[in-house]
Design a protein that fits this description.
Radius of gyration: 17 Å
Strand content: 25-35%
CATH architecture of the largest domain: Roll
Helix content: 10-25%
Number of strands: 7
CATH topology of the largest domain: SH3 type barrels
Distance between the termini: 36 Å
Number of domains: 2
Number of helices: 2
Length: 106
């Protein structure tokens, strides 16, 4: 029964995507690129300022967002001195692309 539901849901998503409609959430999952906007941002082991700093990223260093917890975002750094490191950064120090899930525009 679960398999049939999964196939039906997938078929609906494919049909909607093929028709030009964007399925809510699918565009967000596809574009997780971001970059640091602050002059520097500490990557932390946990989503709190009391946790250990595991690295520092600098303005315009690129990243991929992996997870969210309150006002924090978990990042994998893709450029700069912290390249390859994974850690938590306050969301206000990171630019994430906005995703328009309405086609045509809302």
């Amino acid at each position: 029964m679960r398999a049939r539901r999964a196939v039906a849901a997938l078929s609906l998503a494919v049909a909607m995507t093929g028709s030009g409609l964007v399925v809510a959430g699918s565009a967000q999952a596809a574009d997780n690129r971001c970059y640091i906007t602050a002059s520097s941002a500490k990557l932390r082991s946990k989503a709190t300022t009391n946790s250990t700093a595991i690295g520092v990223a600098y303005r315009n260093n690129r990243c991929n967002d992996l997870d969210y917890k309150g006002s924090w975002v978990k990042l994998r750094m893709t450029t700069g001195n912290a390249k390859g490191k994974v850690g938590w950064v306050r969301r206000d120090l990171v630019h994430e692309p906005t995703v328009d899930t309405c086609t045509p525009a809302c």
